[in-house]
């Protein structure tokens, strides 16, 4: 639903019904907004039309889990817990995103071991809270222009291992891997032991299959892992200007529903081609 807004409400229900008609099994919503009642309303609607929901979360500098300031780290933990509670209210089971550290917040140094330790401490506490709600947290590696703590699958696997909690796993996104990894196959093999979420995102954030991501390598490599989870199309528009500007999306790629229809057809074809 990032194509529409970071705050999904009843205004989006008609479009969500169109996604159901296309063939989607669920949607992914952003969890920045704090109001519980809206998530309950969205969750009830999705249940009524037999669609599932998962969440995505990012943190700002004032909520940075790797900050030297304990109060800032606590604010980050509180925000993750709030997102968990809201995801539970909506009926979802997974929260992905770069909540291991603050988005687009840089120290001008390479990642420090102490920062991994701080992140792991916050994420372990968050995973404990998630376990009570039956939710899995799947932090995401981002490219170097959006974060510095976790850019690669090797770094993400390291962090997941440091957290060492069954309710915190990892995910794969080819948009970021296209920038940071030497090989899609090697990256997927690295994260495979803890991979419980996959984004289908093109190199330019447009329609999957229309860019230069090596999709046969991606899906073929996933097929070797035995992965049997969600494939979420992550594409963007400039409809939510604050969000678009924050993630440096400066142009429209295709009409929203064209992305949804063509992206669905492409993803389904790749899943069938690689016997996933």
TrEMBL record:
Domain Xylose isomerase-like TIM barrel: from-to ranges: 16-245
Keyword annotations: Isomerase
Stored Pfam families: AP_endonuc_2
UniProt keyword Nucleotide-binding, yes or no: no
Any one GO molecular function term: isomerase activity
InterPro entries linked to this entry: Sugar_Epim/Isomerase, Xyl_isomerase-like_sf, Xyl_isomerase-like_TIM-brl
Full protein name: Sugar phosphate isomerase/epimerase
Organism field: Oceaniferula flava
Lineage, highest ranks first: Bacteria, Pseudomonadati, Verrucomicrobiota, Verrucomicrobiia, Verrucomicrobiales
